[in-house]
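Sequence in, structure out. Go.
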Amino acid sequence: MSASPAAPSPAGPYPADPSELVARLEAEERELVLPSFDNLTAWRLGTLLAERALADGLPLAVAVRRGAQRLFHVGLPGSSADNDGWLDRKMAVVDRFGHSSYLVGTRFRAAGGDFDTDARLDTRLFAAHGGAFPVLVRDVGCVGSVAVSGLPQEVDHTVVVTVLREFLAGT
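Output:
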């Protein structure tokens, strides 16, 4: 990421129509699959995310987990404890549904619903807002999550996806 990801316009990288957006987000999950994942992989991925955010001056909190174990966490300048709460709530959505927090929330909207009311989950524990992505391992499935918090949900999601692509290109 050489430039800071600006808030996408309606004509930006993601379609405005929720059904089209669901298809795009599902395609990202099929694309962004790691060959393997361990503690060192988590460190490298988290560090790459943090370095890109620092270079772009993004006020993010970054976390990488395998299951319930947080393997990487940093709060960058401009982030706050509130961002840590958002990380936990978005990652809880990935844990429960096995999909990105943005995809889960978008699926509810595409069906004419609202995650916060229709999922019947405690909104103090779950947030289907963009920024948490499943750590998907080839021939295994979802083993954890990688997340950022600090920007609008589509931008948080874009940051994670962009860095995952870069990370996979280097593996």
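Check: The helical segments are 18-31, 39-55, 81-97, 101-110, 115-118, 153-169. The first helix runs from residue 18 to 31.
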